[in-house]
Specification:
alpha+beta, about 45% helix, 5 strands, single chain, 2 helices, about 100 residues
Length: about 100
């Protein structure tokens, strides 16, 4: 089935940082062959159940890739926020008020 975890793990390299490292980029390539075979990022979609079409399986795989992109984006945002907090904590000095008397 198209949405097995090992298929999604194979697609993980299609998520990579942008050239300037200011975001993430997901590349999805879908190819429909004349014989009815559909591939998503060169992984063939073969659904064993007769009730689902290969197109439905391909769309599910693409949705899972988008979910994975969202998860990686959230993790990236959290890591960057933690780094910024740590940097601010290292560079900020405690504010002290000195008596003028």
């Amino acid at each position: 089935m198209a949405n097995k975890p090992e298929h999604i793990k194979k697609l993980a390299p299609s998520i990579k940082p942008t050239k300037r490292d200011n975001g993430l980029e997901l590349t999805i390539q879908v190819v429909a062959f004349d014989n009815g075979l559909i591939t998503v990022n060169r992984i063939p979609i073969r659904d064993a159940s007769l009730s689902h079409s290969p197109w439905l399986s391909a769309s599910r795989m693409m949705l899972e890739m988008l979910e994975r992109l969202a998860d990686k984006s959230k993790a990236r945002d959290a890591a960057r926020a933690a780094t910024a907090r740590a940097r601010r904590a290292r560079t900020s000095f405690p504010h002290t008020v000195q008596d003028a008397s």
